[in-house]
Amino acid sequence: MDQLSAAFGRMIHSFFAVIFGLLKTVFLILLAALLVALLFFFTRYKINPFRMTSEQLRTAEIGCKYFDLFRWLLVDFLEREKHRGEFSEYGFTF
Predict the structure, then answer these.
(1) Where are the domains of the chain?
(2) Is the separation of the CB atoms in 91 and 74 below 8 Å?
(3) Which of 12, 34, 85, 90 stands the most exposed, by the fewest C-beta atoms within 10 Å?
(4) What are the respective helix, strand and coil percentages of the chain, to the nearest 5?
């Protein structure tokens, strides 16, 4: 019985090792693609990520709709203090 459980345990372990190895590879590829896209965004549109302002982001002319979406997400993030409590009368807690 011990031999059977040991063999079954090795089989299950090798199966999960392959699955987790594939998931790790996919995750690392997606992470690398995200970092390359962010690097391309900041270099293509000449935006310094350490000194960016919302006005600088508003005046940037961005043609790609996904980078434009990212720009407005950054503007919303930089102006989050201006909109604090905006939905408090509706019970939202943003």
Answers:
(1) 1-44, 47-87
(2) no
(3) 90
(4) 70, 0, 30
